[in-house]
Amino acid sequence: MVSKRRLSKSEDKEALTEDASNARKQPLSKKTKKSHVYNEVEENDSTFVKLLKTSGVILKTGESQNQLAVDQIIFQKKLFQTLRKHPSYPKIIEEFVSGLESYIEDQDIFRNCLLPCERQQDEETSMGTSYPKSLIKLLLGIDILQPAIIKTLFEKLPEFLFESVNSDGINMPRLIISQLKWLDRVVDGKDLTTKIMQLISIAPVYLQHDFITSLPEILGDSQHADVGKELSDLLTENTSLTVPILDVLSSLRLDPQLLSKVRQLVMGKLSSVQLNDLPVIIKFILHSVTATDALEVISELRERLDLQHCILPSLFQASQSKLKNKGRTRSSGNQENSDEDCVFLLFDVIKSAVRYEKIISEAWIKAIERTAPESEHKTFDLVILLIIYSTNTQTKKYIERVLRNKIRSGCFQEQLLQATFYIHHLVLKDVCPSILSLAQNLLHSLDQSIILFGSLLYKYAFKFFDTYCQQEVIGALVTHICSGSEAEVDIALDVLLELVVLNLSAMRLNAVFVKGILDYLDKMSPRQIRKLFYILSTLAFSKQHEGSSHIQDDMHLVVRKQLSSTIFKYKLIGIIGAITMAGIMAADRSRSLSLTQGKADLSNEQYTQVTSLLQLVHSCSKQSPQASVLYYDEFANMIQIVKLAPKVLEWIGQTIFNDFQDAFVVDLCAIPKGDYPFPVKALYGLEEYSSHDGIAINLLPLLFSWDFSEDEGRTTSQESDHKLVSPLCLAPYFRLLRLCVEKQHDGNLEEIDGLLDCPILLTDLEPGERLESMTVKEHSFMCSLIYLTLNWFREVVNAFCREPSPEMKGKVLTRLKHIVDLQGILEKYLAVIPDCIPPLGTFDLETLDVTPHASAAFSAKIKKQGITGGRKRKAGGNKTSSHDTLSKEDGSECDPTPSNRGQLEKEFKGKEEKTVSLQNYHFSFRELDMEVFSILRCGLVTKVILDTEMHTKATEVVQLQPPELLFLLEDLSNKVENMLTPSVARRVPFLKSKGSQNIGLSYVQQRSGQEIAHCIVQLLTPMCNHLENIHNYFQCLAVENHSVVDGPGMRVQEYHLMSSCYQRLLQIFHGLFAWNGFFQPENQNLLYSALEVLTNRLKLREPDQSLEELLSQSFHYLQNFHHSIPSFQSALYLIRLLMVILEKSTAPTQNKEKIASLARQFLCRVWPSGEKEKSSIPNDQLHALLSIYLEHTDSVLKAIEEIAGVGVPELINSSKDASSSTFPTLTRHTFVIFFRVMMAELVKTVKGLQAGTAADSQQIHEEKLLYWNMAVRDFSILINLIKVFDSRPVLHVCLKYGRLFVEVFLKQCMPLLDFSFRKHREDVLSLLETFQMNTRLLHHLCGHSKIHQDVKLTKHVPFLKKTLELLVCRVKAMLVLNNCREAFWLGNLKNRDLQGEEIVSQNSQESTADESEDDTSSQVSKNKATKGGEEDEASDGEKEQDSDETDDDSD
């Protein structure tokens, strides 16, 4: 029993050392247990056996373990001393080794010597912590024996190389090599290395792997270099050993050059290695990286690795999908699991490297960052960035910056991101929290493309990750929605909408999180509320929603609570929510159910739920006209968007048609009688009706009755049998009726086409002389009447604008003319009482608190003549028979020529001071649909006029006139500005009210930017027609009047109308082509279509034109319009439009100079001045155009010199109100704009010039020196202008940009002067002398600022003085470098004003005595120590240049 315990204990310790001994111990213990024989001692009289026995080792025969009677260290010491002191030493060593060789000839005995020795029981206590070693291992620990025994082992080892593994599982070659591991000392390492490498060269492959991987454990550090060289040679010969060799090389201390050589060798084989070997190879490459070559290595690795790495995971992904779809064998499953493990292992290697090696993570980011935009990025790039983002917190900001730049440049697009998640989703799932954190930060951006990328991260994380990650995604999106930032709320709701479509079943699992947003409805816009209820309704009421009943209950509770609220805002939320819910509940599911046996229509229960909900909304909103308007609008939007079940649509249509007829339509024979303040007349009818036929819109009586009921109190109205409907509901109710009829009859409006030409019960709207005598109440009544009429006409035009018949088109054009005429009349009313608050056109949440301010609405001076000119007009003709006043013009489509032109001009000139801009009242008008702009296609429309017996009476030619054209273009321009060029998203605190910047755009905002762009591309052809007609008009006008606006026969009103149309057309073109959606691949065809329209205006269509050709032709077409540009604003839009076209080209340089030339022409043109204005050029637009000119010109310095050296002197020599003859836009009022732009561009230009190095060629030095001479000369010209133009803004610009120029001079010019001084001394001295005069003037400007105590100026003085002082020291350093220190001297400058007069003060008087010049550097210290505020230490910078002139004598 004792021996059994000893053997088992020995077994436990052996398990910690060597695998081979583990397999051997169990049989030994069993054998020993059976035999219990301990006296099988080797009886041999050889020297070998005796010496071992003397030293404490008892050799056993058979399978018994050799016994160690003493401690291992004691045995080695005794044997060493015995051998060393033996009389026959060193011959005894040969005898000992010879005995060993004889003893181990037997294979079993040899194996026994290789296995650990057994300790005797009395030695147990002295074991300590050492583990039992084999006899061979013990002998190898003796230095005098080690070489001979190693030789013996290597001679013995080949016998076992090709033998199979023994039955006991012991591999003899591995066991022999294991004896050499972890020796305390290797006596002859070089010999051992040679023997092992020879052995590796002849061993079988499976043993080669083991021998190679054992090398670090066998050899000492001194042999690493030799082994590394041998292994590198072996690597080139045998590629199958790549993995073990690289594994060993990673563990050896090798020369960097050798590692680099091996790395290059391995890098070339990356494309051919197997996936199983890839982790080891990548590990070696990353571990061999140094700080100097990290970027180069990572860049090469990135290029070579991605090619095959993208293929393997995609194949793995495909195999995974097959595994899910059909059964697979176990072996294929194991192979896939192996591939998956390799992929994970590879990324673990990369994660470890980037986490613990800062140089690797930074190099990888830089390699991706420096990848050229034209080269395609790989999915591996994104994966690496996300992994580094998750593992290294210090680089998060850096990675975010790289991502933002790549997204802006279009390198990282949706396709790349989708492919990344598709291929690497198993790896990315582990970094899901970091991905969500990154997406959150990207959504805080102000750039739309970056926000979109962040939303895609959420989308694909939800699509590809597991349920837990999906829950985290929904939680993050809900957080964004509740954050209060409007941009974040919009994009997060859009993502939720996409997820509902993408995976409805998964979204239902997270519906409880989305439902929580219902608590945050207060600060959401109507559009956002609509999206939220659409999402929740889809989750609650879609097919198979048995588990969603709790969402339905909560939504019904919220809606009913909001509808019953007495607070108007909450009632509107309830209306939006209820209508959205009803739309989802009543949606026609015939398509989705067509594949099943279910019924397509709603069940009776569902039908009842929908109708009862709609009736509830109607009953809760009818008490408030505002709520009713919103109800009708929301109802109409829902009908327009959602395809309703026929059953519900029929009920809605019948109810609406009857209610509208009862509320708003009366027969002409039954005009209501009453005591109205104005006589009631049926006006604006488009057909001749007898007094007994026809219908009319009952507007004035209804408005009067409603106002009367408000005055008398609501109780009377509520108690009456006939319930009045508010006239505010007329336009929205008609929109609802029209859309319902469209849906029921597939767009046919014959049932209601009588409403297009029926008259309206009004009174004479033209104010005439009674305007001044009206009471406030009468005035307010008339304004409301006109507003309601305008909105009625707007909705009528919305309804019938797409009718194909010429008769209907003529009527629509007439209604459009009525709108323009009525707006002119309304402006006259508002000009008298601008405080009048009109009724709102829509009543969504954004318009609740919006009212026009008197100061904003009323404008005695029209500051933007070109924009508002079209609104300052008077209606002409008799409104009772407006069809008789239709224009019968046969001329140009854009030639206005109304019959009462003289009266128009007189009204325009006489009443201009009492007009207002309806731009400030846009929230009171109904929105025009995008379909209305199809009217722009109208050419000449022949309208047939019938008599009372329906016989043809006459024909009229109707066409779109400039006032109506301007009306349409203004509205379209507003839509383009808000939809295609959205303003920068602004973060708004959640508890604060959002702005109302998008009021009146609720219809168009329901469409995507792509839809809007598509509509405008369809309109490009008619807009080009209008643009060319207007161009021809101004060309002819220029010929007739020689470009003089107020020349004889000039019609000012017509001129401004056409000019405004020109500007609006260019604005629309610019807004379209500046749309960032064109960069998305799915919109490339749309861009091609738009460019083809412009190209085809020049020449016939040519098939298969490249994008570059289209851009070039379009640029040429648009450039041709510059001759006829009528206003500066239009010129700027044309320039910007050409720049946008240029940006899309890959070779923009050829047209860049054309932009500069065109901008210069516009700057040199005399522009017509506005009425009663000093200039028609806004400062910001002049600033923009001048900046464009200087940015695009070939030589900025020459352009600045021309303006400052030619234009400004012309201005100085001209009269007070005159301008420069070369640059007419340069006047005394615009000088500060020119000065600011020139100074800014000068600083920007010199910043872009590199300082250069001494190693550059002589020619480069001369070119840069010449460049700086020109720059300093320009700076000198500009600085000296402050002596003439000394206004405060000019001085501020001079202080600000003067300091910046000196700073750039210090950083980039002074190094150039350092190594140019000797060869170009005269040039350098001239440069410094010129610059000295400039810095002296800057010093005078500092003194001027102090005298006048101007805070805006003096805040720049300390920074400027510091910069000038640095200049002193820097010039001195340059002279010292060139051995001219004695030429440097300093002195004090007197403080002077701009005119050079000395500024007398106490400190300056005291310092006069000390004004002597000193040639020692101690003077600098003295100046710095002076505390007098009036003494300027930096002024010494002016004196050192004078000293440079003495350099001629001293050098």
Quick structural summary:
By secondary structure, this protein is an all-alpha fold.
Helix-strand blueprint:
Blueprint: H1 2-14, H2 19-35, H3 47-55, E1 57-58, E2 67-68, H4 72-85, H5 91-103, H6 107-114, E3 118-119, H7 135-140, H8 146-156, H9 172-178, H10 189-202, H11 205-218, H12 224-237, H13 242-249, H14 256-268, H15 278-287, H16 294-325, H17 330-356, H18 358-369, H19 379-391, H20 396-408, H21 414-428, H22 432-443, H23 448-464, H24 467-481, H25 486-502, H26 504-509, H27 511-515, H28 526-541, H29 549-563, H30 568-585, H31 590-593, H32 604-621, H33 625-641, H34 646-664, E4 665-667, E5 681-683, E6 695-697, H35 700-712, H36 714-719, H37 730-744, H38 754-757, E7 760-762, H39 776-800, H40 806-832, H41 854-857, H42 865-868, H43 901-910, E8 941-946, E9 952-958, H44 962-979, H45 1009-1018, H46 1020-1041, H47 1052-1073, H48 1084-1096, H49 1107-1119, H50 1128-1143, H51 1149-1163, H52 1179-1192, H53 1196-1213, H54 1231-1247, H55 1258-1280, H56 1288-1316, H57 1321-1348, H58 1351-1354, H59 1357-1377, H60 1402-1406, H61 1418-1425, H62 1436-1445, H63 1447-1450
Parallel strand pairs: 2-3
Antiparallel strand pairs: 1-2, 4-6, 5-7, 8-9
Helix pairs in contact: 1-2, 3-4, 3-5, 9-11, 11-13, 13-15, 15-17, 16-17, 16-18, 17-18, 17-19, 18-19, 19-21, 21-23, 22-23, 22-24, 23-24, 23-25, 24-25, 25-28, 28-29, 28-30, 29-30, 30-32, 30-33, 32-33, 33-37, 34-37, 37-39, 39-40, 44-47, 45-48, 46-47, 47-50, 48-49, 49-50, 50-51, 50-52, 51-52, 52-54, ...
